[in-house]
Write a structure and sequence with these properties.
Low-confidence stretches: none
Strand content: 25-35%
Number of strands: 6
Radius of gyration: 26 Å
Distance between the termini: 84 Å
Length: 132
Amino acid sequence: MLGGNAAAGAGSNYSVFALPLPTSDPGQALTIPENAATVSIEILGVVVMVTRQPGQSTEDFTQALANAVNANSTLAAARIFGLASGTTFVTTGTIDDSTITVATPVPSLTTWGVVALLLVLSTFALRRASLR
């Protein structure tokens, strides 16, 4: 905690300098793709993994990764934290390894696909009825 200018016994001022985190450095930043299902990162030998929840936006998923990093007591003790900036995760540490698994898209049924499926099912039902 830093005291203010008028703090008892304070004989001088203080200054704080800040640098932005490098969002383009692959050693410290990771862009999360829209179709990411899980993300696993390793920082200082600590593996942190998050799984996307149903309906979760990519921005919220990226924030969940930052929250998981910040909740890790080993990383917090080493003063390593994570930050979400849109779909980019940035850390004050170094990302040693990362793995992103993507969701397999569910194929949509076209009108003709539905018609074909109904024909197959009705043919199956007719054959089954004729066997009785």
